[in-house]
Design brief:
With about 500 residues, this protein is an alpha+beta fold. It folds into three domains: about 200 residues, Thrombin, subunit H (Beta Barrel), CATH 2.40.10.120; about 100 residues, Roll (Pdz3 Domain), CATH 2.30.42.10; about 90 residues, PDZ domain (Pdz3 Domain), CATH 2.30.42.10. Helix content is about 20%, strand content about 35%. It contains eleven helices and 27 strands. Strands 1-3-4-7-6-5 form a six-stranded antiparallel β-barrel. It has a six-stranded antiparallel β-barrel with strand order 8-9-10-13-12-11. Strands 15, 16, 17, 18, 19 and 20 form a six-stranded antiparallel beta sheet that branches. It is globular and about 75 Å long.
Length: about 500
């Protein structure tokens, strides 16, 4: 180690200060190159061994999944977008190239086999995976790490969260333990295991890039973990694992850089395992999936809305409407309230808030802090219930195909563009030439508000209502064409 000597001079008074500074430098100076290199290699070697141990332990519980899906060719959708049809740009896509879940198109049916992943969570064969892989599949096969293959039964799938459960008839299977994803921190190391492009039990590592990602319209309730662990088509449904060897998420989607390249660019998303656990328990019980509900219509704050409400901060969720008789009304919530805290945690965005409410059981007592007329107010509510019927098979689309139209959820942007502010319904994005809808004068941009005298709020409501109407062979639609309300009756195919 090199040392430095100083001669006395007129600045001797600073001798002690300088000496102390030099001693500090000696302590913080880097190690000689050989020692430093050896230390770095040892750290990397230990990290590699840790990854190897986790992978060795977890891989036997990871399975490959092949599903036979009935798919269709998409028609183009709403014309005259100012910058082209946004749905033609699959910048953000599901694995296997499936369209956004809220999009419904007239279809030309065909079959295709898709591949994905899953992981065993019970010794008797329950497997967690993604809804978009098996939810609409007619045949599902599972291959274990030891080479055995099984026919799998779809126990249930939930498009609202993208979680699905399948089961194989086997015993004494290896399982993966589920972590508490709420404790996951940005920057933590995670490992993804799956079958990208059919390459069985591929292991990749990365970090948690972000939490609480939402707004992609992949599911009704979004609270994704973002990771740069390399995941690709075929990883979908596989586990995202922490350094304790426990599952923190279900790998679900990726961002791709270009249509011609559908591989990993370092941005992948996983469903938090706490959300999956909430759904899993209900799926294996059967019947219906139940979410907590407040009974409010909400929107994100922006600068203009915040200013109108006398607020400087744009973090929070504004109440546009309180449903009569709901938990929110009973708790005293009012229109123009801004929710800033929920059960002691800050509220910043709509999707995040909706997911947190939904993942609590009906009857749960919650504390909500709102800002009303510039003052904070604490309210207490007992959550109500929002539910959806358990989905175990494909939604029949025969009636929708026959209608020859495509509908989409009414977003704020579309409502503003077409003059449907404060309206509810689904907007028509495409009408197939020569179809029943075209013959009756339905055009893109019209808003379907009711089906058989019942309001429809989203595409799921619309699909279910059309499915029921198919039994009668016709359907009555209440349509807003931008000027008037129209009553149009369409004939449906007989079952």
């Amino acid at each position: 180690m090199q040392t430095v000597n100083f001669k006395q001079n007129k600045f001797l008074s600073h001798h002690h200060i300088i000496s102390a500074f030099l001693i500090l430098l000696l302590f913080i100076a880097p190690l000689p190159a050989p020692a430093q290199d050896t230390s770095s290699v040892d750290i990397l070697r230990q990290m590699g061994k840790a990854f190897a141990k986790i992978s060795e332990k977890a891989s036997p519980a990871v399975v490959g999944i092949k599903a036979d899906q009935t798919v269709s060719q998409k028609y183009s959708t709403m014309p005259n977008w100012p910058f082209g049809d946004p749905f033609d740009d699959d910048f953000f896509e599901r694995f296997f190239g499936r369209p956004f879940p809220y999009r419904r198109s007239p279809q030309r049916k065909s079959h295709r086999a898709v591949q994905g992943s899953g992981f065993i969570v019970s010794a008797d064969g329950h497997i967690l995976t993604n809804n978009h892989l098996v939810g609409e599949a007619e045949d599902v096969k599972v291959k274990l790490a030891d080479g055995r293959e099984f026919e799998a039964k779809v126990i249930g799938s939930d498009p609202d969260t993208e979680v699905a459960v399948i089961k194989i008839d086997a015993d004494n299977l290896p399982i993966l333990e589920l972590a508490d994803s709420d404790t996951l921190e940005v920057g933590e190391w995670v490992i993804a295991i799956g079958n990208p492009f059919g390459l069985s039990h591929t292991v990749t590592a990365g970090i948690v890039s972000a939490k609480g990602r939402s707004g992609f319209r992949l599911a009704e309730y979004e609270d994704f973990i973002q990771t740069d662990a390399a995941i690709n088509p075929g990883n979908s449904g596989g586990p995202l694992i922490n350094l304790d060897g426990k599952v923190v998420g279900i790998n679900t989607a990726i961002v791709t850089g270009h249509l011609a390249y559908r591989g990993n660019i370092g941005i992948g998303f996983a469903i938090p395992i706490n959300m999956a656990k909430f759904i899993y328990g209900q799926l294996i019980e059967g019947g219906k999936i139940v979410y907590g509900a407040l009974g409010v219509i909400i929107r994100d704050l922006d600068a203009d809305l915040a200013e109108s409400l006398g607020l400087q901060d744009t973090k929070g969720v504004a109440i546009a409407e309180v449903i009569e008789g709901s938990a929110a009304e009973k708790a005293g919530m009012k229109r123009y309230d801004v929710v800033v805290e929920f059960n002691g945690e800050k509220v910043e965005k709509v999707n995040e808030f909706r997911s947190r409410v939904a993942m609590l059981k009906p009857g749960t007592k919650v504390e909500i802090v709102v800002v009303r007329n510039g003052k904070r107010k604490t309210l207490n509510a007992e959550l109500g219930e929002s539910s959806t019927e358990l989905k175990t098979a494909k939604i029949p689309l025969k009636a929708i195909e026959q209608l020859g139209l495509t509908v989409q959820n009414l977003t704020d942007d579309l409502a503003e563009r077409y003059g449907y502010e404060d309206q509810e319904g689904v907007i028509v994005t495409h009408v197939e030439p020569g179809s029943e809808a075209a013959r009756k004068g339905i055009k893109p941009g019209m808003l379907i508000m009711e089906v058989d005298q019942k309001p429809v709020r989203n595409t799921r409501d619309f699909d279910q209502a059309i499915g029921k109407a198919a039994e009668a062979g016709k359907v009555l639609l209440l349509i807003n064409d931008g000027r008037f309300r129209l009553l149009i009756v369409l004939k449906l195919p007989e079952e």
